[in-house]
Amino acid sequence: MIRSMFTAISALSLHQKYLDVVSNNLANANTTGYKSSRVLFQDQFAQMMSPGSAPSVNQGGTNPTQVGLGVGLGYISPNFSQGTLQNTGRNMDLGIQGDGFFIYGTGAGRRFSREGSMTLDAEGMLVNSASGLRTQGWLVDSNGAIDPKLPVGDIQIATDKTLARATTSVNLGGNLSATTPVAAGVSSQVDVAIGVYDSLGALQTSTLRFTRATNLQWTWGVVNPATPTATLAGMGGTITFNPSGQLDTTIVGNPTFVGGEVPAGPSNVTLPSSPGASTAALQYLDMTKMTMLTATSSVAASSQNGLPAGSVSDVYISPRDGAISLVYSNGLTEQIGQLALARFVNPTGLMRGENTTFLAGLNSGDPEIGTASTGGRGTVASGYLEASNVDMAQEFTNMILAQRGFQASAKVITTSDEILQELVNLKR
């Protein structure tokens, strides 16, 4: 009788732990990035009543006789199934689609979490909004590149920067009138004013002068600011049109756009710049959209790639790869860093920490740190947070199972007590 009581007591204790796990899961049903836990029961060792015997020539074998001595806790492990990504509309709220973890803190205090609500602290450090732990990643090097092979570190973002972009290419469009006479002097000239930005973001104005040299050919150059009747030596070229009035692209050396904002063959055009600024050198003048028809001359700069100075207006974290960029008021973007993600061979071996974080455990393996979208770490979803993966229907079912299991074990103790009472009463 005593054995049945102790067996039931082990079940009572275990079902209490089961209920503890269920209650913790339900308490965190709305906790961002929370991973639910599950409980595994295991039978305890059994008392051997008879070991059994092997078959003989004239007699069959017998099976062993054992009495179980209760139930034990196998393990309580986190369930790392994907939680639902909920749209927050805030770019610095981040979720992970896949198996990765955000990395917070350094050294012995390093934590790993699926909770990715980020913000900047007073020192410009990228931190977790709730815990204040510093987010880990990489900053760009002097060449503007990211090296994920380097150790991760804190990400400090300077939001008081300004940035300008010097003009390197200008696109010209419009018409050079075919009625312009082929003659020396002002009558054969068409002046076009263009505005470009130097390296300090100052707008500089220069004038290009087109002069009709032959029926289908024009020369061009940069007007000398000191002597407006002349062009600067060594800066200019020749463009040739076909009889249809379009730029003749069959002629080698005719200005054609090689591809991209910075084509392979730079021109020899240097423009004025502010004191202290780098020399404003155009790498290309795109004249492929110009025509020579009988209409009035209307050549103008249709676009250029320079920008005035602008201040930081936003911090943008790219979806998928987690690249961190500064967005300037002039439209420029500048990548300054990238988030790091970690992956574990055995994530169920992680130990739970505070604030929905995990610590590397003895059986989790070392963190495999790298960039998003590589090594099975998953991708970053900016503007989303991962909801808890608690299945409330399943947890309420588990609650009922824990309750009924506890009741059944308690009934065993009551029944054992009644039998013991009957044994005591035999003396009477």
Overall shape: it is rod-shaped
In DSSP terms (H or I, runs of 4 or more residues), the helix count works out at 2
| Global structural class | mainly beta
Low-confidence stretches: 256-266
Q: What's the N-to-C terminus distance? A: 20 Å
Number of strands: 31
| Radius of gyration based on Cα positions | 39 Å
What are the main properties of this structure?
6-stranded antiparallel sheet; 2 helices; mainly beta; 428 residues; Tick-borne Encephalitis virus Glycoprotein, domain 1; 3 domains
Short description:
By secondary structure, the chain is mainly beta. 14% of the residues lie in helices and 38% in strands.
Q: How would you explain this protein's 3D organization?
A:
The structure is a single chain. The chain is mainly β and 428 residues long. It has three domains: 2-51 and 62-73 and 389-425, no CATH class; 85-161 and 311-386, no CATH class; 167-305, Tick-borne Encephalitis virus Glycoprotein, domain 1 (Sandwich), CATH 2.60.98.20. Helix content is 14%, strand content 38%. The protein has two helices and 31 strands. The protein has helices spanning 2-27, 392-425; strands at residues 37-43, 46-50, 65-68, 71-78, 85-87, 93-97, 101-104, 111-113, 116-120, 126-128, 136-139, 153-154, 162-165, 169-175, 189-197, 203-212, 217-223, 231-240, 269-271, 280-282, 284-291, 300-304, 307-317, 323-328, 333-339, 341-343, 351-352, 357-359, 368-370, 379-382, 384-386. Helix 1 runs antiparallel to helix 2 (392-425). The two termini are 20 Å apart.
